Amino acid sequence: MANALARWKCPASENSWKKLPIGTIIINKSITGQSIMEATSLQTTTPVSAKEVSRPALRTVFRILVAWGLSNKEQIKLLGNPPKSTFYRWKQGESVVLSQDTLERLSYIFGIYSALQLLLPRPDAADGWIKKPNAAPLFGGRSALARMLSGQVADLYIVRQYLDAQRGGWA
Q1: pTM to 2 decimals?
Q2: Angle CA 131–136–139, to nearest 5
Q3: Residue 5 near residue 49 (C-beta atoms within 8 A)
């Protein structure tokens, strides 16, 4: 993926900084007594296609699902109920182009895994958390896995959001 570093400069008294893209870093500099704002933004100039990310994403997600100790049936459910033949082709590493829905599911699974690794530094604790009953109102005494296996992508999002909030991130 190619990235371009975009830069803008304007006198600090102007309000043109309000038109900068979200994620822009603004630095206020003083040059010979005149205040200058410099804004830097890292912008993607070359989009990444689903074809480019599908195979490595599947390889990674299957490693996570194995670490979590999930059965094939549970894996199929988390991945959006693809036909069994498709699921097994994915597991064998065949070159595929995943749908946006499947890529979104994988993204949430990656985020859940990552958050667990940060919250619970012992791999066995992090990997086991999703199967343990949880007293948080969100889970109602059930495990996070039970919530995630509802089949709805929104439930993956909710578990991801819960974990991000637990580690002090945005919820």
Answers
A1: 0.71
A2: 55
A3: no
